[in-house]
Amino acid sequence: MNGNELSHALRQRNKILAILLLFLCSTVSQARIKLVALPERAATVIRLDNPRATLIEEERVLTLQKGLNKVDFSWKGVSIDADSIRLRPLDHPEKVTLLNVSYPPNEAALVWEINSDSDFAETVRISYLLSNIDRLITYKAIADKPETYVDLKSFLVLRNFSGEDFDKARVLLDYGEAFEQGIDHEETKRMLFLKAPKVPITKIWKFDSDEQPWDPEKLENQNVGIPVSYRIVNETNPATARSAATGSGLGEFALWGGKARIFQDDGHGSTIFLGEDVTDLVPVGEKTELYIGDSRDIVVTQRKMTDNRINLIKNNKGKVILYDTDEVITAKIENFKDGLAMLTVIEHIPGEWDMEKCNMKYKKKDANTLEFEIKLPARTEKGPAVKELTMHYHRRNVRP
Amino acid sequence: MKRIILILLIIVVINSVSWAKVDLVTLPSRDTVQLTIYNSADMTLVRESRALTLKNGKNKLQFSWANTLIDPTSLEMLPKANADKIDIADLTYPPRVRNLGLWNIDSGVSGKVPVEITYLTSGLSWRAFYMGTLTNDERTMRLQGYVRVTNNSGEDYEDAQTRLIVGKVHILDRIAKLARRQYPYGRPGEIVPLAGAPVRMMEAEGRMVMEKAADLALYKPKEIKKEGLSEYFLYTIEGTETIPTGWSKRLLSFDVDEVAVVNLYKYEEERYGNSVVRFLSFKNDKKHNLGETPIPGGMLKVYRTADEQGRLSYTGQSSFKYIPVDEDVELNLGPVADVVVEPKLMDFKTDNYRFNRKGNISGWDEIRTFKVEVKNTRELPVEVKIQRNFNTQYWKLKKSGNFDEYEKVDLDTVKFTLNLKPRSKKAFEYVLTTYHGVRQEDW
Q1: What is the ipTM of this complex?
Q2: Which residue of A13, A25, A157, B379 sits 20 to 30 Å from the alpha carbon of B372, by its own alpha carbon?
Q3: Cα separation of B305 and B34, whole Å?
Q4: CATH top class, domain B339-442
């Protein structure tokens, strides 16, 4: 490399990843430092498989001389984890040995001492963790009008704020083929990387008595929204198995967490925006629930009708030390929708308890959580479809 | 003002791949534009169609949106023809340039290609409001619903098909916030990077303009088509609308006459104090000439026809929530003095004392006798609902006198309903026994 090229390389706006090859003649003690080469970066790989850190691997050809070589690796304006830097000779791994690494004071640099058995033009792979370059995943789903499936698209967003321009790099995710992509400093690129048509969805309405207000009438001029979610399972859909085989379906790899925006076909060749949510990582076979918005056409009015202490046990002083309760909760559920809906109602009963009578079937999710799946018929000419849940239970051995 | 600019750059690859000549070819304008405006969040979905002239090979399309409130992460472009031959490879947000996106398009066709560009923007909004006109006898009401669409987006949308969404959408970030980000997706490690972007004084500016626009709001009524989608309702305004930035427009949503109303009065000390509060009650159903679609929440101003000449008197106003089809509506018009509810404690005594071993009181009953007098001084029949709260679940009630309905609302609340003729009085009594201390065990 001539001086011009070098100064050009050094001029690069506050970001330099430079390698200076120094070699030592004859003796180690008196080093004659000579700039041998500033090798160009060859094959570069940006590995984004770990969401917490981005690994850069680059190959450079070092002109090594027989004996001890010193290679100076410095960086400026970029944030490299110095402890993560590794060097691996690729052509003559047995004959080229990395002896040690030293860090000069107050400098973003290190010096490798490499022993070479003879003169080699050695290709080495340098890898390091680079900060401020990463990827995001976003999703866009378009539901059909009856809300039975979504056409799912996933986008990969590359963000490079590392201080380094990458003209051409192979970008590797944790699955799928690597692809070539250049990305400059401060540049953001969005690419479509997954298309999964006709992914079945389940629409869920959920009333949780710990989260939603009980009596809408007591809220002046406010609707109580019943949260509505779409449940999507990361599995191969038999209906679209053929396209899945060509790599466009779900059920092949974990879906990364990210923001999902959900739209719906309006039946007029256009769409409406339904809502957005963030999904966590969804491993194969697992489900995710995306909260899209609130339904105001299902109204739950929950009230406590009875709450008495019974079976009192008193101490010698006549003070109650233990009692049971007799509690009745009713929930009137009205469906003002034109279609039927499966409403999940979550009720909570603290402590020890047993159910005296309940007019609907429930599943015990845990010791204190009851889940009801209530099928609500559509509204009729006569008015909303109404169901009433009544729970009569006793909390046992309550201490005052 | 046209702030969204679309520039098509065609990169003509000459000889070698390394040297490309960037050539500005066309500046396609919008062919159609559709606005879907939300009212639960400051958000509008814009869908525009444009015809691009593409060349076989690599094309670059530059889209800029300076001084608008577009969320750059929501931008998407889809070809509407030859979709299999046109690959929109990626969208790049170039470094050190704000409000600019570059689409890289690989085209297998040459010539005009219709594309659809969608994005979310903030700054457009709509709200519903209502005018009610009661007949002189207050038995029926003419109900007029309006929508008012305001454009403060910074972009003029000409001849736009305008649609309004009624519903509560779950969103994570405000679109206006996303629009003002320095980098569309932020920087790694940063949560909300905000730049010192010029923030439009939307509120103040919007209000000023709205006042101006109100005088001009004399538009020929257009029909608004209403349909349900998912949990929302979609209102589509007939034809197209042009709402320049800074302007707003009022449109008639519906006009229904003879909605039967009930003059309902409520009394509940814990909620309304010692006054009677007037409600106007009706139902969003066919019987009331309504019930076609839910009614979006908004403010209702109620007037009453005061005389034969149709002069009006202003009764009051009430904001109300979203009303599904078939649900009862109760509009709070505020406290009144012409219907009076007077609960009086007529007698108080205690009874059934229990004592513990030390000889102290451990339990007792409190017996209160209430007389409730209800007066209707109006020349109209009224319905009065009186709710009483007891602060304990250990109670018993004996009631007597002139009431129409009695209901236990929940463990410590009861409700009496009375219908009163014009200029009439009713009274009823109840004896409330509450159990205290160990007497609760005998309840």
Answers
A1: 0.76
A2: B379
A3: 41
A4: mainly beta
